[in-house]
Design goal:
The protein is built from 9 helices and 17 strands. The protein is α+β, with helices and mostly antiparallel strands and about 375 residues long. It has a 6-stranded mixed beta sheet, with no helix packed on it. Helix 2 crosses helix 8 (about 230-240). The relative contact order is 0.17. The model has no long low-confidence stretch (mean pLDDT about 90).
Length: about 375
């Protein structure tokens, strides 16, 4: 592709800004990033409260987030935020220790069984399901893999593995098929609690795309990254570093692909490009709350694209910041596993205390409000 190709990137979140960075690294500098809102970062949003920043979107990273580390290196920043820790409570608010044998004598057989299944699961993913963790998941449904390794070098990898078709199963069925049902007790914390859905409805491919084995083990060991100025700061730094920062408040009303060109109507004016990269949500506007600007409202999608976009499922995930009476302020962050099931839809699954040195801060809470067999839970 010619280095002067005019490229339009729709969306100034992590994906859109990263696309600009990687294009720039390859010598493609004629790109434009269009962002609808008045800020960059997308779901990495770190608003200010009393002089500090808090997380109302993504909270943390881990060492296997190699793409994030690429951005850190490009910008000359690092993960310098507060150290995280967490405890657990049941739905009644009682502190529990679900993974501590000495405090759960009656659960020792189950915990030992879980440990064996975890080891088995790791071995299965490396052997029976070789290729499961490649970025992109191209070809999984056909029993092949084609993508980039989850390594610092992201080497291109491809091959055939008929077992990968199993990844189309819901994660709960995938685990049952392989005799490792108890690993769901480990994966559920960093998956369901942060809005990615329930294991009886989300395909294993999607669960393991976000939480491959090494990433999940980093969460288990609390080997976590945070940023003093919040996750949004990563993308603010990248935006400032790019030769072509995102154009904020860009309201796109039409994208038309015609005669080998792309015509984008933004803020009432038509701009011409050679290529378009869409990193904004692909969902189809179904008229429901939280889905007020579907892609088909402005994009000239073909019939086959419309069919694909219409199959996209999206979650209803509510993040709220609350203040507490100082005497009731939690001393640490908590997971509430009892609330991470469909029958507890809408209940708080996590509450997050960001700073250890003050009670004069907001606590961030997280709740899922959608399940395939239930009505969306109201706010």
């Amino acid at each position: 592709m010619d280095k002067n190709t005019r490229i339009c990137i729709i969306g100034g979140g992590p994906a859109g800004l990263s696309a600009g960075m990687y294009l720039e690294k390859k010598g493609y500098e004629n790109y434009t990033i269009l962002e609808k809102s008045d800020r960059v970062g997308g779901k990495c949003w770190s608003p200010h409260f009393n002089g500090r920043r808090y997380e109302m979107g993504a909270i943390m990273g881990v060492p296997s987030y190699y793409a994030v580390h690429d951005v850190e290196e490009f910008c000359g920043i690092t993960h310098d935020g507060p150290k995280l820790n967490r405890n657990y409570k049941n739905k009644d608010g009682k502190i529990i220790e679900p993974f501590e044998p000495k405090k759960n004598i009656l659960k020792i057989p189950r915990l030992l069984k879980m440990k064996k299944q975890l080891k088995k699961f790791g071995e299965l993913l490396e052997t029976k399901y070789k290729g499961y963790d490649l970025n992109g998941h191209r070809g999984v449904a056909q029993g092949r893999y084609d993508g980039f390794a989850v390594t610092p070098g992201r080497e291109p990898v491809s091959g055939e593995n008929d077992n990968l078709k199993d990844l189309a199963l819901p994660f709960s069925e995938f685990c049952k098929k392989n005799g490792v049902e108890l690993v769901q007790d480990i994966w559920i914390g960093p998956f369901t609690s942060f809005g990615y859905g329930y294991f009886d409805e989300i395909p294993a491919a999607y669960v393991l795309k976000y939480l491959d084995f090494q990433t999940c083990m980093n969460f288990v060991k609390i080997n976590l990254w945070t940023w003093q100025q919040g996750t949004q700061y990563i993308w603010e730094c990248l935006d400032a570093k790019l030769k072509n920062p995102a154009r904020l408040n860009s309201n796109i009303t039409k994208v038309e692909r015609k005669d080998g060109k792309v015509y984008v109507t933004v803020n009432g004016a038509v701009e011409e490009y050679d290529k378009v990269i869409v990193t904004a949500p692909f969902y189809v506007n179904d008229g429901n709350e939280g889905c007020d600007n579907g892609m088909l409202d402005y994009f000239d999608a073909r019939e086959d694209e419309k069919e694909l976009f219409s199959k996209i499922e999206y979650e209803r995930y509510t993040v709220q910041a609350v203040t507490t009476d100082p005497k009731d302020h939690p001393e640490i962050s908590y997971y509430v596993f009892d609330n991470m099931t469909p029958d507890r839809l809408g209940h708080l699954m996590v509450y997050y205390r960001r700073w250890r040195d003050t009670v004069d801060q907001v606590i961030t809470t997280y709740a899922l409000r959608k399940h395939k067999n239930k009505k969306t839970h109201p706010l």
